[in-house]
Each structure stands twice: as structure tokens, then as C-alpha cells.
């Protein structure tokens, strides 16, 4: 597991697990492997979850930079539990597929990009 420090850019994802808490850019950020049953059963993703960009850094391209770094890994990417219309629109414009699914009786909105077979 890697923990993001204030002075660090997005590191390489060796180990496929990244956490940031009270980082200067990200209040919260979790990136980890995850399996979902879409678009086909047992699809493996590198999931981005619980992202909160600090208000000071919102709208400055930091989330875009994170997504670009993750896409460079050539793994399937899932941005899970999206609540921001701005994020949803950004991902759809990048070629992600929007999906709504239910987990533990909760409706979750997500976007995914299939890069590996």
C-alpha cells in the first residue's frame, strides 16, 4: 500500500493500492483492485473510490491527472459511487461507460473503462 504525502505527485501504482487522507489536494482517495459483475461476470478493475478533492484544488485538473495516470496502467478502471455530475460528464467524455447498480440495497452510480481483455 502506498500513502500519498503532501509533497508527492501521483506515484506509480506498484501493488495497485493507493490511499490519501488529508493530503493537500485530496481530502480522501482510495485506489484498489476490485471485481464487479459488469460488463461481464468477474471483471477485474482498478477502482477509484471515496475521492474528495479539497475545495482549494477543485477545478484545477487534479482529478483528470489522477485518471490519466491510472489509464496509463492499461488496467480496467472503475470510478465507483459517483455523486458529482461534473465527474460523471468528464468520464463519459473520456469514453467511460456509465452504469447504475445495486449493492446492499443501495443504488450506486459508476463509470468504467475496459482496457484489458
Describe the structure.
The protein has helices at 62-71, 85-93, and strands spanning 2-3, 18-21, 26-36, 43-53, 77-79, 97-103, 106-113. The longest helix has 10 residues, at 62-71. The two termini are 25 Å apart. A 7-stranded mixed β-sheet has the order 1-2-3-4-5-7-6, with helices on one face. It contains 2 helices and 7 strands. The protein has one domain (2-113): Gcn5-related N-acetyltransferase (GNAT) (Aminopeptidase, 3-Layer(aba) Sandwich), CATH 3.40.630.30.
Please give a handful of descriptors for the protein shown.
single chain; 117 residues; alpha/beta; Aminopeptidase; 7-stranded mixed β-sheet; 2 helices; 7 strands; 16% helix
Chain oligomer state = single chain
Give the CATH architecture: 3-Layer(aba) Sandwich
Strand pairing plus helix content: what structural class? Answer: alpha/beta
Number of strands: 7
Largest sheet: 7 strands, mixed
How many domain modules? 1
Strand order in the sheet with the most strands: 1-2-3-4-5-7-6
End-to-end CA span: 25 Å
Radius of gyration: 14 Å
Report the CATH topology name.
Answer: Aminopeptidase
- Along the chain, the helix and strand elements come as EEEEHEHEE
Total of helices: 2
| Strand fraction | 35-45%
The CATH first-level class comes to Alpha Beta
Poorly predicted spans: none
Mean pLDDT: 84
Helix content: 10-25%
Overall body shape: globular
Amino acid at each position: 500500500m502506498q500513502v500519498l504525502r503532501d509533497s508527492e505527485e501521483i506515484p506509480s501504482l506498484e501493488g495497485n493500492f493507493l490511499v490519501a487522507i488529508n493530503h493537500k489536494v485530496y481530502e480522501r482517495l482510495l485506489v484498489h483492485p476490485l471485481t464487479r459483475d459488469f460488463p461481464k461476470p468477474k471483471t477485474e478493475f482498478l477502482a477509484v473510490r471515496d475521492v474528495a478533492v479539497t475545495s482549494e484544488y477543485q477545478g484545477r485538473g487534479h482529478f483528470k491527472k489522477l485518471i490519466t495516470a491510472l489509464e496509463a496502467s492499461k488496467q480496467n478502471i472503475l470510478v465507483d459511487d459517483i455523486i458529482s455530475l461534473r465527474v460523471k460528464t468528464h468520464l463519459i467524455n473520456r469514453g467511460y461507460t456509465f452504469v447504475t447498480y445495486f449493492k446492499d440495497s443501495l443504488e450506486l452510480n459508476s463509470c468504467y473503462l475496459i482496457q484489458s481483455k
